């Protein structure tokens, strides 16, 4: 990692799907004041297995280009895009991005696992905007990591711009309406998708449910700031862990 000089702010590189309109605003709103966010994009219009698979091939080039900006750490901000090939792909992706950018790198799926571990969460409820096919891939990934998924609920949306049109109140209602096991019976709730604007809902949900709530962007922001060795204070119990 490049040591920041006294006259420049820490630079965070953010790799997002081309249709993502949420990650950059949330990173800039909730990220550290003494850090700047620099984006790179990979082609994706619909959140489907085929498009996510194709998109992942552009990740290394995006990281390489962010390296040209002398960033201090890189975040790959796509949940399903970093778990699409199952257990182990997230770690391989981080290693490839780190090699390309020449700085520490994190990928959302692995950041979520680190976040849940930091919160000592073993049993979770999951809310997503995805189709059933992607929900099952996410469930399999989380369970392979040793987590118990009490319930997972998806909205069945493929178009990423439609996901980006959702707001924090949509996330709040979806979490409160999770069926099967109630969120109060779990250690944490996970709201998946970096294009699902939900970080704004975390504080209210934690107050209502009495358990930590982790979002994809929240976990990724927390993790990349750890990688860049810079403090960050955003909504939720995750940002109060050591």
From TrEMBL:
GO MF terms held by the record: isomerase activity
Superkingdom assignment: Archaea
Alphabetically ordered keywords of this record: Isomerase
Pfam families (UniProt xref): Amdase
Isomerase as UniProt keyword: yes
Protein's UniProt keywords contain Isomerase: yes
Annotated protein name in UniProt: Maleate cis-trans isomerase
